[in-house]
Amino acid sequence: MNELLAQFINLLGAGLLMLAFAMISQRRILSLIALFTVQGAVLVLSTVVVGFVTDQPHLYVSAGITFALKVVLIPLMLHRVIARLDIRWDVETLFNIPTTMLIGILVVIVAFNLAMPIAKLSTSLTRGTLGIALACVLLSFLMMITRAKAVPQVIGFLSMENGLFFAATSATYGMPMVVELGIALDVLIGVLILGVFIFQIREQFDSLDIRHLEKLKED
Amino acid sequence: MTVSGFFSQLLEIVFALALAPLLTGWINQWRAWLQNKSAPSVLQPYRLLHKLFNKESVLAEHASPLFRGTPYIVFGCMTLACAIVPTLSTDLPLSPAADAIALVGLFALARVFISLAAMDIGTAFGSLGARREMLIGFLAEPALLIVLFSASLISQSTSLTTIVETLAHRDFAIYPGLAFAGVAFSMVSLAENARVPVDNPATHLELTMIHEALILEYSGRHLALIEWAASLKLFAYSCIGLALFCPWGVAEAGEPLVMLLALPALVVKLAIGGIGLALLETLSAKMRIFRVPEYLAAAFLLAVIGMLVHILLAA
After folding, report:
1. What is the per-residue pLDDT across B148-207, written as a single tens digit (0 to 9) for each?
2. Using the beta-carbon criterion (under 8 Å), do A7 and B177 form an inter-chain contact?
3. Structural contact between residues B20 and B48, judged by C-beta atoms closer than 8 angstroms
4. Which residues pair with B154 in a beta bridge?
5. Within chain B, how many helices (H) and strands (E) appear?
6. What's the complex ipTM?
7. I want to staple A128 with a disulfide (CB 3.0 to 4.6 A). Which of A149, B203, B313, B314 is the partner?
8. Which of B76, B75, B93 is nearest to B84 (CA)?
């Protein structure tokens, strides 16, 4: 039974990785938010399963916090931001998505190679997920690098946090409660600040393209 | 070759030939229902085949023997493909003849011949269709190969019968790598069978068509063979999908009676798969031809990642 549940956690990890790839290749902001919400839901499910397998009730609490934050609150806030900025139907022009995805696959190989020796030291049932979590984090990094607009970058940041959280729960069976609460609060504050920041960028440059920030003074 | 092996092989080929048009008709019917249209009968493809076989075959003046021979080659390739894929039983005398890689080669052979035949007449539509078909083919094949490799990694063999035997008769286990491979395989089979996100099977005479452009010059019994081969290809792909991702109920060597159970199981699985395909086709829109490389690149990457995940988790 536990063996099967561990495999189920692996499957959820694979799902997270697939969603990270889907986010990289997604052009529309609305679909991006939907994907982020699904990623949050998968994360909640995996946390609950890990909590059940390892018999650690405090993981249920952190699953609850994750659900409230990443499945309900943050997507709602993102929807409000894009509604107020009126960028609901924005389609971002990226450089060549197949190239990005090819780079993504190299990133995955690097992450797996890095995680393999570390995972061998661990005795936990789901040690294989460490590589997947690392790959998710790096892919979100890649997404932040390749995006030109501010909102997708924020989503990339949040999805990176998802990857970290998954690493923490599945590979090490959860961090102490205090740390988890702190991180949850950090993410919430981070999104609030970034929301304000997005509005400021918009005020200053009439655009959300962050390349405008590279100029130090007005010509 | 044992007698029961011979019989199971014969039974498989006969069932593939008989059921393939039914699967096409079933999918068309469900698609019409889902799109709020009055549906054609499930038996419509049979009527079409009957009509075409009774019609005269008109050939262009400049048609070479290649053009005339291609329908038979394509039909032969698809029949052989259906014979190799274990659908009812894994006791198939023909299966050592070709493993998973050779199976992809069979599809490629059919594709090359139909593209050559399309260019043979020299019409604009034929060459256009041939180009597009080759574009899709050369991107879809590596993805399909990698999907088959991920399944081979689990069973340590590229022979399809061995793969099915290992996957169907082990203890139940979840392979996350196969989840990736499943998504990639669905994407590839949509592209290879000219279904909606890549090509619209319902159109005839449109600039965007691929499969129809290839066979525009065919008529009569040639067209009937090609249409039948297209049904067989869809059938073969569905059976590969079932063999890799849902192999339960397939009979093994030495238990001929299980085949009695395997047949209803196969029909139920195909029926559910057909409804799924119709639903997918209704929900998605056809994409621009220049988006297709992106789509197939995504399928390839998913397949590669499935393999990597399998290696990581197996270590």
Report:
1. 998 888 888 888 888 888 887 776 777 888 888 999 999 999 999 888 888 887 777 677
2. no
3. no
4. none
5. 11, 0
6. 0.77
7. B313
8. B93
Task: State pLDDT tens for residues A193-203.
Answer: 887 777 777 77
- The span from the CA of B5 to the CA of B17, in Å, is 19
b/e A176-189 (16+ beta carbons within 10 angstroms → b): eeeebeebbeebbe
- Distance, in Å, from the CA atom of A98 to the CA atom of B295, rounded to the nearest integer, reads 9
| CA dist., res. B177 & res. B166, Å (int) | 16
Task: Say which DSSP state B90 is in.
Answer: S
User: Torsions phi, psi of B251, nearest 5?
Assistant: -75, 150
Q: What single DSSP character describes residue B198? A: T
Residues of chain A with Cβ-Cβ distance to B173 below 8 Å are 3-4, 7
Residue whose pair of structure tokens reads 């052989």 in the numeric block: B80
Spatial separation of the C-alpha atoms in residues A163 and B139, rounded to whole Å: 31
Q: Which is nearest to B289 in space by CA: B220, B213, B219?
A: B213
C-alpha Rg value of chain B to the nearest Å: 19
Measure the CA–CA gap between A214 and B183, rounded to whole angstroms: 40
Cα gap A7→B313, rounded to integer Å: 9
Report the chain B residue with the minimal C-alpha distance to residue A112: B312
CA torsion, points A146, B182, A4, A22, in degrees to nearest 10?
Answer: 20
Who's near B58: CB < 8 A, 6+ residues apart? B219, B220
Rounded to whole angstroms, the Cα distance separating B210 from B133 reads 6
- Give the separation between CA A199 and CA B68, rounded to whole angstroms: 67
Report d(CA B214, CA B132) in Å as an integer.
Answer: 9
CB atoms B293 and A102 under 8 Å: no
Q: Which residues of chain B does A112 touch, with a Cβ-Cβ cutoff of 8 Å?
A: 308, 311-312
For chain A, the C-alpha Rg in angstroms (whole number) is: 18
pTM, 2 dp: 0.86
